[in-house]
Please model this.
Amino acid sequence: MGKAAKALKAFIMDIPDSTLAALPTLGGTIHSDDNFRLDMQGMTTAGEHNLQVSISTSTLKMVSPATVAGPVLVPNENPWCAAEIREMLLASLVL
Model:
C-alpha cells in the first residue's frame, strides 16, 4: 500500500463521529485536511446522501483520480452509524 492510500485511510478514520452522524442535505465539503476532503454531493432522487472523498492537493492529483472513495449512498431514513459509513468509504477506495 502506497503513502497516498495510507493517508487516505487515515483521513477516513479521522472523520469525527459527530460529522458522520449529522449529514447535511445540501452539497458541500463536510470535512477536510491538507490532502483530502469529504464532500456531500447532494441528495439522490431516492433520498440518500451522496458522499465522496476527493483529493485537495495538486501533488496527489497527479497520481490518482479526483474522486478516491465513493460514492457512498447513505439512507436519510434509518441512516447508518459513523462506523458503517467509514466501512463503506474504505470499501469504495479507488486509490
In short: The chain has a mean pLDDT of 88.
